Structures are given as structure tokens and as C-alpha cells.
Amino acid sequence: MENHFVEALKHNDEQIIKELYDNYRNSFLGFSKKYNIAKADSLDIYQEAFLAMRKHAISGKLLEVNSSFKTYLFGIGKHLIYKKLKEYASKRSYEQVLHKVESDYEEIVIESPDKLTKEQELLRHYFKQLGNSCQQMLTLSFYRGLTNEEIATLEGYENEAVVRSQKSRCLKTLKNLIKNPPK
């Protein structure tokens, strides 16, 4: 790696850093086009990759690198592009599933002649006070009956352990709201 670039990043040489940033920006945007990434996302990814380069320079990781500055920067960018494509895929599949469900089935409305029990009313009231992510998590899990693995795939979580942890926190919050209502 070009040692003077590493030193500039390490010691915050603003002039060289600005030149580096500007010199590789358009090349990176051209490179990212072949992955069908939105331009705004490409710009974010480039900035994130450049910041990662700076962190690596400060930590000394770049001293051991044998590739050029551009190759290493684009390598980080490519990893971030793949991460973004994975996000796109999970959102797209959820939207496709949702659209298919909405278009293939007519809505079923069940009207119960009985009133909700006191416990059901409490649950409904405090469920609405949870954040959107907790409502979504608990709905997918308990109402739609999806497994933790299915939720991880659908919502783009890293793995099912993250879903399990998030679901546990959401349930704990709901239980605390019901047991100790805010005054």
C-alpha cells in the first residue's frame, strides 16, 4: 500500500485525504453500477468504505496490506455492496410475499359476538404502546406463527439468535407494561 496515503489518513492530512476521496469517488460509482445499486446507496457505501480505510490506517492494519490503496478501498466497498444487496433481497422478498398475500386472498373479518376479556383488552392496549419493531416481531411470531429462522430471513436479521433475543426483549417489555402500567 502507498505509505504516504496511509500516513495522510493516520495524521489527518486534510488536503491529501480530500484528494484521495475525490480521485476514487467517480471510479467507485462506476464500479458499483454493475451491481444495480441505487446511486444514493453507492455514495453512502463509498463514504463508509473510505471511513473504514481511515480507521484501518489509524489502527495500523494498512501497514500489513500488500495491495494498492484503490484495490483495498474497492474491496471494502464490494463487501459493503454485497451487504446492501442482501438487504435489498430481504426487503424485496418480504414485499413480494406481502403483495402476493394481499392479492391472492380476500380479507377475512371475524366478528366475535363476545366482548374481549379484561386480559385481552389489557394486552391489546399495551401492545399498541410497543414500538413498531416489537409489534412486527411479536405479530410475525405469535400471530402468523413464523419460526425465528423465518423471521430472520424475512426481516433481514443476522441470524435466528438475534430474533430470539429481540423477541425476548419485546415480550419482557410487554409484560412489564401490563404488570406495572405507567401512571
UniProtKB/TrEMBL annotation:
GO terms for molecular function: DNA binding; sigma factor activity. Pfam families: Sigma70_ECF. InterPro entries: HTH_Sigma70_ECF-like (IPR053812), RNA_pol_sigma-70-like (IPR039425), RNA_pol_sigma-70_dom (IPR014284), RNA_pol_sigma_r2 (IPR013325), RNA_pol_sigma_r3/r4-like (IPR013324), WH-like_DNA-bd_sf (IPR036388). It comes from the Bacteria. Keywords: DNA-binding, Sigma factor, Transcription, Transcription regulation. Residues 46-164 form the RNA polymerase sigma-70 ECF-like HTH domain. Belongs to the sigma-70 factor family. ECF subfamily. This is RNA polymerase sigma-70 ECF-like HTH domain-containing protein. It comes from Winogradskyella psychrotolerans RS-3. The lineage of its organism: Bacteria, Pseudomonadati, Bacteroidota, Flavobacteriia, Flavobacteriales.
